[in-house]
Specification:
mainly alpha; about 0% strand; about 325 residues; MetI-like fold; single chain
């Protein structure tokens, strides 16, 4: 790969991160809401506290969070802090830092969505390839229609159905949470089993709703390969059907499918927001939801910046390894 192309891609990556980060800074402020006033007012209302001295408290917290500075100065401070991966204190959970809260929630989301995404992708790719082949075992003819039907149901709605039937009616699984109340997350067999038990329903809702998507995508890619020259040439050479299916059809159809998988993995740090909120799962999605509800600028900026970087890195890595995955792709100057 040429060095000038690599430098160009890295420069474009940095530019995209800067532009997205700039939007990330200004977008929450367009509403014009005072987050400190909203937080203190909500706390005073819930606790029945007097509003005496509220103005002085708001002014002090605004000064502490740097909200009294001009907007351009806040922006420059934001860029400097972001470059150091420092996102200030959470307004809703002061004096806890944003990085601390993200660090607590990120492992839950990464484990849940990485496992479910890979699992759904593998099953969907396999079923999609079989659908295009047209010679499926009889059992798949009964399994596929429900799977394809479930793919039309949104994650959150499927999650509600699973909660009602498997959690509320049958009582097979807990209704919400990442672990039983009173437990402290730790690397102990008993606690790990408990956390896995709580993650089954959220994972099941994601897998059931996404397997159909991967299945239809792989089937469409397989169908498009059937009329290509290399497929006709392989058949003319007298190759076995299994060889043509695996080495020619599946191998070429997997490239775009792997692209979609890489982008999906790049976006897992955002969390399945609605699924995590419905199941009260302690992941990044729930964290982002609470930040939006409370107008926690710094928390929103931290989570969204992390999403921007993860998707940007996934796209950059894909772009750089494409020539390795498919010899037909070359970035060399002709």
């Amino acid at each position: 790969m040429r060095a000038d192309y690599l430098a160009k891609r890295l420069g474009l990556f940095v530019l995209i991160i800067w532009l997205a980060s700039t939007i990330n800074f200004f977008l929450p402020r367009l509403g014009g809401q005072d987050p400190v006033r909203a937080q203190l007012g909500a706390q005073a209302a819930m606790g029945g506290a007097s509003q005496v001295g509220m103005k002085q408290m708001i002014e002090e917290y605004d000064r502490r969070f740097g909200l009294t500075k001009p907007l351009w100065e806040q922006y420059l401070t934001y860029l400097g802090d972001t470059a150091r991966l420092e996102f200030n204190f959470s307004m809703a959970a002061y004096p806890t830092k944003v990085t601390t809260l993200i660090g607590r929630s990120l492992p839950w989301t990464i484990v849940l969505l990485t496992v479910t995404t890979l699992f759904a992708w593998t099953i969907g790719t396999f079923l999609g390839a079989l659908l295009a082949l047209g010679k499926m075992p009889r059992i798949f003819q009964f399994i596929l229609p429900p799977i394809l039907t479930l793919s039309a149901i949104p994650f959150f709605l499927l999650g509600l159905l699973l909660i009602y039937f498997l959690g509320f009616q049958l009582k097979w699984f807990p209704l919400a949470g990442g672990y039983d109340q009173g437990l402290q997350p730790a690397f102990e067999p008993k606690i790990i089993v408990n956390m896995v038990y709580h993650s089954i329903l959220p994972a099941l809702s994601i897998i059931l709703a996404s397997v159909g998507f991967w299945t239809l995508g792989m089937r469409g890619l397989m169908v498009t390969t059937q009329g290509d020259d290399y497929m006709i040439f392989a058949e003319a050479k007298g190759l076995k059907g299994r060889t043509i299916f695996l080495r020619y059809a599946v191998r070429n159809a997997l490239l775009p499918q792997m692209t979609a998988l890489a982008l999906a993995l790049g976006g897992i740090v955002s969390g399945a927001v609605l699924v995590e909120v419905i199941f009260q799962y302690p992941g990044v999605g729930s964290l982002l939801y609470q930040a939006v509800r409370s107008s926690d600028y710094f928390m929103m900026q931290g989570v969204v910046f992390m999403i921007i970087v993860s998707i940007g890195v996934a796209t950059l890595v894909l772009d750089l390894i494409y020539p390795r995955l498919d010899p037909r792709i070359s970035y060399a100057r002709r």
